[in-house]
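INFO  loader      accepted 1 record
INFO  loader      residues=118
INFO  predictor   begin
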Amino acid sequence: MGSNKYIHFFFGCAALILALLLSLSIDWVWNYFAKPPQLAVNLIAVGITAVVTLVAYRNDNLHGTVTDIFHELEKVTWPTRKETSAATVVVIVTVVISALLLSAIDSVWSFLTTTVLS
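INFO  predictor   done
INFO  writer      dumping tokens
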């Protein structure tokens, strides 16, 4: 079963998003001409979404691509808490050093422009 539940979850989420977008789009286009019945709009959106999702799920290329993506995501390793803390300290120290350096350059530049222009 492994990553298959994530693949099914992905297609389910994609179907929900597509249904929402189709419902809003159909409502927007139909509302341009007349006030649409919400039940009809939602039924059309769900019907189109069901067909598109079924075709996409049964498409070997797309299903294989999604499966490959989830297999690659299983290989991802996350840093440990110690590595994350060390990297955070390095970033903070680098930002402080950069701020001090830029502040010093700005002070010198401000002094020089004030001296030259006055």
